[in-house]
Amino acid sequence: MKTKKHLLYLALALTTAFFWACNSTGSGEETSTETEEAAATETKYTLTPFSPSVEFPDAKIESMSYENGKFTFVIGGESYQLGVQTPDAPQKMCANSDKGQHIHLIVDNQPYAAKYTPEFEYDIPDGEHYLLAFLSRSYHESIKTPDAHVALKVKVKDKTIQAQEPITEPMLFYSRPKGTYVGKEQTDKVMLDFYLVNVELGDNYKLKVDINDEESFTIDQWQPYYIEGLPMGKNKIRLTLVDGSGNPVATPLNPVEREFELRADPLTEQ
């Protein structure tokens, strides 16, 4: 009788140990899976709204002409002046031009040209082009007001605008990042800025931002953003204007893509 009881106790003990081992193994696998899933959802880059900037409510491009390879702008408004530093530039902690405030000139899908005087020479090939010019702060943030930009479809011949009309399509123009950024102050936070024509972001239109073909963000506010987490070396940004369902909008120059480079300061960052 005692032998049977001992065998029964032994069987119960073995069964309990078996189930405990199985449950422990399952719990470990579940924990491991949860950890892997959490790691997979961690983002490599961050995109956060730019801090509020100095405003220029009366800044205005009163006129623009292009003749014999030369642009002539008339800039109005008492608050804005080409070639001076924007007052809050030191607080922005991003790339700032030591030449001051300027005009961003974009022809078709080309990178912008920064111009610090109202008159300058510029070569545009013969043909039809989309042309955007807007006033910029010294740290390259666009002034996003109706009077501070000009957006035209133009026909150029012999380096002169022969015909022009306002752009009527919804359009996206890429502005920043651009070029090469050097040193911690320029590379820790890189400004993303873009210009919209005939577009209001919200339910009907959004902007998709692809960073290095690794992560995507969808934004619905027209404002600049800080990009953080970018590696040193070559980087790539692709902007796509999409509709409310996330489909690319069938409009000229959409999407647009740029490469730029981040470098450590060789004198201070060894």
Describe this structure in words.
This protein has a single domain, classed as Immunoglobulin-like (Sandwich), CATH 2.60.40. A hairpin with a 5-residue loop joins strand 4 (102-107) and strand 5. It has helices at residues 2-41, 89-92, 184-187; strands at residues 46-49, 60-67, 70-76, 102-107, 113-115, 119-121, 127-136, 149-157, 160-166, 171-176, 180-182, 190-197, 205-211, 215-219, 225-228, 233-243, 256-263. By secondary structure, it is of the alpha+beta class. Mean pLDDT is 88; it is low at 1-40. The strands form four sheets. A five-stranded antiparallel β-sheet has the order 5-4-7-8-9, with no helix packed on it. Strands 11-17-16-13-14 form a five-stranded mixed β-sheet. The termini are far apart. It has three helices and 17 strands.
